[in-house]
Amino acid sequence: MNSLNEVVSLVELFPPPFIFINDPISPKYTIQYLISASEDKIRLVHIDGTSCFTPRLLYDTILNGLSQHRPSWDEGCRNWSQETANDSMDSFLRALKALYASLCTGSSNKGPRVALVIEKPERLKERMPDILAPFTRLAELSNLELSVVMVSEARWEDIRPPFGSAIDPYYVDIPVPTKEVIIEHLIKTFERCSRDFNLGSTSTTPHPYDSVLLQTYKHFIYIVVDVCYLYTNDPHEIQYIAAARWPGFINPVLDAHSMNVEAAEDDNDIEFERPSTELLLRLTRHFKPSLSLALEQLYPRLTNAADWARANESDASSLARDGLILSDTVMDDVEEEEDTVNEMLFSSPSRPRSSKRIQEQKVAQDLSSSDIKDTLPLSVSLPRLSQFILVAAYIASMNPPKTDLRLFGRGTDEKKRRRRATKRQMANAKPKSGPAKIPQRFSGPSPFPLERLIAILGALVEENDPIASEGISSQNVPADGLDFRIPGERTDYEVTRVGVYASIAQLTSLRLLVKTTSSDKLDGLSTMLKCGSGAPSSYETILSLAKGLGVPLPDLIWDTAAMG
Amino acid sequence: MVNLDDVNETAYYIPYEEQSAEPSERSLPLHLAFDLPNGPELRWNAYKSAWDKCLNRIQTLFHELYEPVVAEVVEKIESAYNDDNQSDFTSLALPHFEIPTIAVANSSSADPYFLSSVISQLRSIAHLYPSDCVNLTTAMKFIISGFLSTSGSGSSYKSSAKILAAYDINVLVAWYSAQKADTRPRNLVLLLHDFEQFDPGVLQDVLYICSQHVPSLPLVVLISLSSSQSPLSPQSYLHVTYPRSTLKLMRIQSVIVPSGPRVLEEVIIKTFVDLSSVNDELDIVPGPAVLEFLVEYATRFNPSVHALLNILQLAHLKHFLTNPLTALVSLVPHLPSGINALSLESTLQEPGSTDFKELLVQRLTFDRDDSDNYNLTSSLPALTRAVHIACSQFRTRTRSIRLAYLLLQGLHGFLSEKGYKGLGNHWGSTTVPAVMSTAAQTAASTLSSRYPQYLSLQNYINLLQLHTQTHSKQSVKDITYARTLLRKLRPEELRAYLNTLIPKFQELQNDLGVDITTGDDDGEESSNLNLAEVVRMLEEWRTEAEEVYRAYETVETGTRERNMNETAVEKFKLLKENLAEWMYEYLGVLTTPIESGPLWDVYYTGSAVFPSETLNPSIRASVIAGLLRPKDFVAEPPSRFSHVPAGGDGYEVAPHKAHAGQKDTQQDNFAEEENGDEITDDSEDDSDPLHTLPDTSVLFHRYLESGKMINVYDWFESFHTVIGIQRRETNAKEGGKKRKGKAANGIVSPAKKGKEKAKESDLDGDEEMNDHGEEHPESSSDSEERHQLLVQARFIRALHELDFLGFIKHTRRKPDHVLRTVFDVGD
């Protein structure tokens, strides 16, 4: 973080008009660091490229931020500037000069150092491409001593306005955060938390962020970083995981302390001491497996930190097994039931214990993933016809249209056709020269017209759905006066029902199917659909659906070899 | 009013009415034969009250069902910003504050009850719909104005250049901090309706901007997902669509609203089968046909609340529209308090109601074969009395069938609780359908049985059809099997079973208490269920069972001598036998078909065919049929009411209606092709000659004969010929000329023509048009030119009509050709 400190001093002493900081890992962290480092020294406005999505918002944010003006509701959300300052670059520059002049009070008649920190400048480029170049030259245009600092994941070469209209920035590249940087950041977080907490409450009972525990926390952090650094080096992500695990990690120590306090009622306060090394090792051994679990579930945000921490609290018995419940009273309760286990543990110290722990971990995993298990498979939550439609959509998405007749055509020469199809398939499997064709599986579902979906659906329903071919219910057949003599005609009638179209619309609203053409275009090309991302385009999901329906899916996929 | 009996009339045209226009006159059902003078009105009112009752019941049930989930969601929202201690420590050290987000699966806007009851319990809530989210500016504007409008002062915000923009979230921040501390809402709920429909790009930015201002702005995002997947699974829409950078801004908690087959079945069973609501009976009892269609539709198409309501409403509507006797429902309410004999009598005395009266007498005498017909026709009080008796008898019968179902279900539940198989897999693996576990469901869904998910309902339907079932008498088997099972009970089980059975009967007796006395026994079938007697008998058996059990207990625990208490063994055997036999006979009595009572069709839809084609028509088939045989659709439908009760196949179907005819016409077309250029004038069946059809139909006939691509010019040519015949026909009629034979030879189908003129067809159409004009030099008069123009105009209009209907697809490569989109099965 030395380079950042350099930036701060540079801005303070001799501000370059334009600095570009490229941080591909964690720009958010860089900005936070920058803001905290330049506190009191530089008047700094933080502008966010996403939040300021129109020039007006951008100007308002900068002016209100620099003047530290908070629009209040009672004044009708008035801006800082009395005049209209947000309709063009010119009026903005005028207002900026006026603002700077108003800041230049006091004897020296010298204003504070001013810097604009722009986060996500690439979003500004997307939305207002014309505004980026003037902003790089803001010092020049406004004739003020200010610097513009852009912090981005992207490189300047990718954002730079064309024709050299922007001046070249002072480049700063932030290296990938090392373990030391991350640890330092986490320790700072700990200190901040312990400060915040002490300010907030007056109680003397120790809490997870008690300053006594700092050394323990350092130890904990080393382990967390060790486990996670391989997968992510964003300090914020590791902080997230640490935050989720730490209260649970230290809880046995806190419990033990409060029990000691209770036990020794009459004595004066028992000093809260940091846990011994031995205890620390035990804690580590107990909780280390759950760290990788935390990474697995928290990094992709399958759950959130608070819920994960709640779901992964250790129960007394597993703690006791690892010797983590320090008070004798509780130990007694547990010991009785754990006696046999302990004997076994002592006789063969390592193996059963570890297997126990793995079991524990499994239980924990089951608990925390119970939400996922709640999910009903599509085969239950969808009505039968919708399942057919999904299978048909998958086939239509994965097969080239010219294969439909080969796969579904049933005529007098059915056998011939099918055999040829299989022969071709064999030939396909052989290695061929020429550019390698990307299997459909890797290129994703391709769009198909609605009519093709209906046609394939008809073929599937005709061959695999006895209900449709025998008629909705037997009593209906004489009543509706329909007489289907040609084979397949009944199915044809069934699959063009309103309900089928309604089901397709329903699946589209669930995003299991995706409409690729705009809905307001009635004329011209027919509606195109494709399988939605996720479940409906995964072979496994559709295969299990097809199995439930009795559809031989592997036979109906042209490029089976590529499906794996 | 529409005719729901006509299976061919599947789509209705509802003319557009301007909003400002006066509401048109209340339309009443058609006047039927044998109807009362004010029959339509009576039936309409009866329909409305009956349907309202049913709807109310269903709504209440859904609200009850959703209540815990609603409470959970509200609780999560309320506690979003004041968490307990433990998570406080966790969130203290987080890198940034996360927006509390509650993702509710299964809560699509299609479900009318869930979201509305959540919304009703929240104070400040802003709704965001996918259509509001076309871009970030409008989305933010909608959010901010949504919140501002929750307080009175907010609505007056007018944006100008000197103040913050209306889409600036700082407006919301300023507004919120200006609220008085005591009246300030604890949190601001942003409800995202139909989450799957949102543009993810816009929503990502919205969420990002919101996340910059929590927790000073206590936003809670409530996501309404239509899919039933848990929002936290890695395959869920949320995780598949949104990047991690967005997901990490939110603290997502998931709630799953119960839905799908389980819920639907539970509601149906509770509405129509459970006896707990017996004192507030529904007016109409849906018969097996309706229930079966309901199950069918829910399994195949749509298990939603809307579908359920639609089907039931349609069943009610049809019931009241087609049977004049249903007017009795409003005249003779079945509740004792509502009995108003006078109204029935006075109505029947009116002069216009003689037909109705006759029909009523006929029905009554038809149903009961005893001989006091004379009485009924002559004396009005006797007639009304007979109607009342019929009414109460009907109630008793429906109740007994439901009781029979509950008894069987109870026995099955009891046995499967004890670990037996019970009555078999088709009764479900657990007693209550609501708590069917996920595992059981998945297992059930893989079964190849026809209705895997609606087992309980199917069993009830089987019971209703007990005596009409032809293929498999499943219910008869079940009842017999129940007897066998009861005979095999062990002493302690017998005791336990009686212990569960008796309270049920007692409860039932209490519920029915009032009603039982009203059934006036008139030498007719007794109208009560003999509950008191049953309870008395069962209690006797229970004391016996108690004794036997005790005897057995001492045997087993004591000396273990088998021979000790022979009398007890005998007694036990006898007791089991008695119980089994009684149960068998009792069930037999209870399951007397509802149809066997008098006037059952007034209250019961029986096996009348459900108008499924109305709910789920095959529109394309109708359109094609309409184009092929337009005259069948224009023709006035004949009045075809028959007063035969709706059971079985009571209604005849007009054989000559559109769908029926569709096939024949197609056959004609094939025949036509074979015969070459022959026109259908003299074809032997009743289909109309081509030139008498409307233009669009003429074009469509030719369309069906052509290949995959149609040359428009050839099409026009053939159309022109047909019009020529048409013209000559009219001329012939007017002037008596006969040139028909010559014309007939000139007709060529586009397919034929296409082959002949394959090369010519690439030429410019206009040019050919001119050629065409020159081909007939003998008709080059002024009127002929006008005729040409007319034909062209008619052709173009018909072509566009087909285009609008979606039968034509244009290609860019061949502008003078169009693609066919519809093919016959035979093609």
From TrEMBL, chain A:
It is found in: Nucleus. Residues 342-352 have a biased composition (Low complexity). It holds the Pfam family ORC5_C. It comes from Lentinula lateritia. Residues 342-366, 406-442 are annotated as: Disordered. It comes from the Eukaryota. This is Origin recognition complex subunit 5 C-terminus-domain-containing protein. Keywords: DNA replication, Nucleus. Residues 382-554 form the Origin recognition complex subunit 5 C-terminal domain. Residues 406-415 have a biased composition (Basic and acidic residues).
UniProtKB/TrEMBL annotation, chain B:
Residues 638-692, 730-785 are annotated as: Disordered. It holds the Pfam family ORC3_N. Residues 770-785 have a biased composition (Basic and acidic residues). Residues 40-328 form the Origin recognition complex subunit 3 N-terminal domain. Keywords: DNA replication, DNA-binding, Nucleus. Residues 670-687 have a biased composition (Acidic residues). Residues 620-823 form the Origin recognition complex subunit 3 winged helix C-terminal domain. GO terms for molecular function: DNA replication origin binding. GO terms for biological process: DNA replication initiation. InterPro entries: ORC3, ORC3_N, ORC_WH_C. It is found in: Nucleus. Its main location: nucleus. One of its GO terms (cellular component) is nuclear pre-replicative complex. Belongs to the ORC3 family. This is Origin recognition complex subunit 3 N-terminus-domain-containing protein.
